[in-house]
Amino acid sequence: MEPVMFSIGNFQIKWYSVLILLGVILGYYLLQKEAKKHNYPNDFIFNLFFWALIFGFIGARIYYVIFNWSNYQNDPLSIFKIWEGGLAIHGGLLFGFFAILIYCKKYNVNTFKITDMAVVSVLLAQAIGRWGNFFNGEAHGIETTLAQLQSYHIPNIIIEGMYINGHYYHPTFLYESLWCLIGVIILLIVKHYRYLKVGQLTCIYLMWYSFGRFFIESLRTDSLMLGGFRIAQIVSVTLFIIALLVFMVLSRKSKFEGLYSEPNHESIHF
After folding, report:
1. Would you say 23 and 129 are in contact if contact means Cβ atoms under 8 Å apart?
2. pTM, whole model, 2 decimals?
3. What is the dihedral of CA 57, 58, 64, 68, to 10 degrees?
4. Residue 50 CB contacts under 8 Å (≥ 6 apart), including other chains
5. Which are the contacts of 12, defined by CB distance < 8 A and separation ≥ 6?
6. Element (H, E) at 79
7. At what angle do helices 42-66 and 15-37 cross, to 10 degrees?
8. What one-character-per-residue DSSP string does 8-55 give?
9. Are the C-beta atoms of 196 and 190 separated by less than 8 Å?
10. Mean pLDDT on 27-51
11. Of the candidates 228, 222, 124, which has an alpha carbon nearest to the alpha carbon of residue 176?
């Protein structure tokens, strides 16, 4: 596929950047709507989103570069060319979470209430962002056949895009994007459960994404590696177990304690 959406002279606008921007805009819109329902000030949410986004991008790039250092050691300036791809979602989640944690501690706000409100936005942005990988011709899976791809009823435009250097490959970007979209629907439904505890929506997000990513990662040809192990699979298993344990602990609370549906009643002063 052609990675460039359009050009103005020597200035190029790439699909990867546009799709990430689209994910950010839609993600912020959904977060703002959810925050309004829970009585959080717009200024607080905007500032929190801004810092989480900045640190999330930095973390996603640092994480990717660390485990692909051989590709950058001879040209360190290429580290800053994020429009060419190379963002690792686990690094973004880690740095973004710490940004939210610090920001919430500063204003004495429940961190997990904020992450609960944000996970739908994050998962939607992930689903959209994966299409940037498609246009960059990256994050695809192992070699396969045209017949097998057609048997999955995959649109021809995607099949053609997966024809790289004379071979067909699994569109793992598509598998993950669809998995994330299904997760968005599940989270939107679950968040209306009357007795959902603060923190449980975050746990469901982590378990859902980690479960799917573990199996999709096994098809990838560009996995970040640590020795003979795929890092994304190690992180996925770790996050799934932690999220499951936290979910079970939260479930032990009394029926009406710490409900996600309860709006914020605290004043937040800047």
Report:
1. yes
2. 0.93
3. 140
4. none
5. 4, 6
6. none
7. 140
8. ETTEEEEHHHHHHHHHHHHHHHHHHHHHHHTT--HHHHHHHHHHHHHH
9. yes
10. 96
11. 124
Using DSSP's 3-state secondary structure scheme, residue 192 falls into: coil
Q: Edge to edge, what strands does the sheet with 163-164 contain?
A: 143-144, 167-169, 163-164
Phi (first) and psi of residue 124, to 5 degrees: -65, -45
pLDDT at 269: 64
Q: For the chain, give the mean pLDDT.
A: 93
Q: How far apart are CA 113 and CA 100, in angstroms?
A: 11
Confidence label for 270 from pLDDT (cuts 50, 70 and 90): low
- Helical spans, DSSP H, in the chain: 15-37, 42-66, 89-106, 111-136, 146-151, 156-161, 172-190, 200-217, 231-251
Question: What's the token pair of residue 220?
Answer: 């990838």
For residue 91, what are its two tokens? 């690094």
Q: For the packed helices 111-136 and 89-106, what is the interaxial angle rounded to 10 degrees?
A: 150
